[in-house]
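Structure first, sequence second, as always.
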C-alpha cells in the first residue's frame, strides 16, 4: 500500500522546510560574496598614472626604481657612486594608499646612513597588476634579489599588512634578509579576521598571511613597534608574534596610539635605537 504523499508531492512545501532552504540559500550567498569580495576588503590601493606618480616622486627627490624589463618596482633616491650605506632597507607598506605615502621612513632613516627603498605593490600606485598574497610576496622577493646584487646588508620594514609580506619574503630569502623592522605587525591574518568578523569561517580566506609561521625558522635581529591601543590588528597580535621570534629582538610600544596614529617623526630617538640594534655586530 502506498504511503501518504510527501508535501512536495501534494504541490506544496512545508513552511519549516521552506525556511530552512531560504536560510541555506542566504548563507551560501553570503559565503560566495565573502570569497569574491574579500580581497577588496583587504587591499585598498591608491591608483595613479605613471606620469603623475613620477611628478610626485620628483617633488620628494625620488626616481623610479625599474626592473630589467623597464617595469616599475618602486621608488628610491639615485644611488651615489662609490657610496655604500650601512644597510639598504626595503619598505613594505600597509594595505592602503601607495608607496610614495611612506616617505616618512626615508626622512627618518636616510640621515642615519640607511638607504630607504620604497617598494610599490602590484596593483598599487602606477604599478600594474592586482594585489594578492602571491603577487606581493613575489614582488618583495624579486626586489630583495635586486638589492642583494648591490651589496650592503638588506633590512625589511614591514608595516601592518606589510609585516606579512616581509615575513613571507624572509621565509624565501632567509640568508639575504639581515634585519626586520616591524611596525604594527600581526601574527596571523586569520586571527585578525576572527576578531573583526567572528561569524565568518576563516577557512574561506584566500590570502593567509601568517608571520608567526613564516618567521618560525628565522634567527635574525628584529625590532617590533606596536601601537598600544591598536584597534585594527590589536596589540595582542603583535605581542604574540614578538614572543615567537627566535633571534635577537627589541619590543617598543607607543602607549595610547591607535593603529594609524603612531608618531614616526624623523627626530625621534626610536630611530637611533632601531638602527643601532639592527646594525650591532653579532
Amino acid at each position: 500500500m502506498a504511503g501518504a504523499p510527501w508535501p512536495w508531492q501534494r504541490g506544496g512545501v512545508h513552511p519549516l522546510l521552506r525556511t530552512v532552504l531560504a536560510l541555506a540559500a542566504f548563507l551560501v550567498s553570503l559565503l560566495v560574496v565573502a570569497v569574491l569580495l574579500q580581497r577588496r576588503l583587504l587591499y585598498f590601493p591608491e591608483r595613479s598614472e605613471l606620469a603623475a606618480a613620477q611628478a610626485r616622486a620628483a617633488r620628494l627627490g625620488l626616481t623610479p626604481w625599474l626592473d630589467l624589463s623597464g617595469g616599475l618596482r618602486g621608488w628610491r633616491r639615485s644611488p651615489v657612486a662609490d657610496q655604500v650605506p650601512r644597510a639598504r632597507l626595503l619598505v613594505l607598506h600597509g594595505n592602503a594608499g601607495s608607496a610614495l605615502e611612506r616617505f616618512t621612513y626615508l626622512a627618518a632613516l636616510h640621515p642615519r646612513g640607511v638607504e630607504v627603498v620604497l617598494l610599490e605593490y602590484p596593483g598599487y600606485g602606477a604599478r600594474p597588476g592586482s594585489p594578492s598574497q602571491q603577487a606581493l610576496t613575489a614582488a618583495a622577493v624579486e626586489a630583495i634579489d635586486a638589492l642583494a646584487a648591490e651589496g650592503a646588508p638588506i633590512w625589511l620594514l614591514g608595516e601592518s599588512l606589510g609585516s606579512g609580506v616581509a615575513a613571507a619574503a624572509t621565509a624565501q630569502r632567509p640568508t639575504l634578509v639581515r634585519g626586520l623592522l616591524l611596525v604594527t605587525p600581526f601574527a596571523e591574518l586569520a586571527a585578525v579576521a576572527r576578531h573583526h568578523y567572528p561569524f565568518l569561517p576563516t577557512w574561506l580566506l584566500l590570502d593567509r598571511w601568517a608571520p608567526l609561521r613564516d618567521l618560525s625558522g628565522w634567527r635574525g635581529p628584529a625590532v617590533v613597534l606596536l601601537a598600544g591601543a591598536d584597534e585594527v590588528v590589536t596589540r595582542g597580535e603583535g605581542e604574540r608574534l614578538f614572543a615567537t621570534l627566535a633571534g635577537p629582538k627589541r619590543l617598543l610600544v607607543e602607549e595610547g596610539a591607535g593603529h594609524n596614529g603612531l608618531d614616526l617623526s624623523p627626530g625621534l630617538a626610536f630611530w637611533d635605537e632601531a638602527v643601532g640594534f639592527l646594525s650591532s655586530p653579532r
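Margin note: The chain is about 40% helix and 20% strand.
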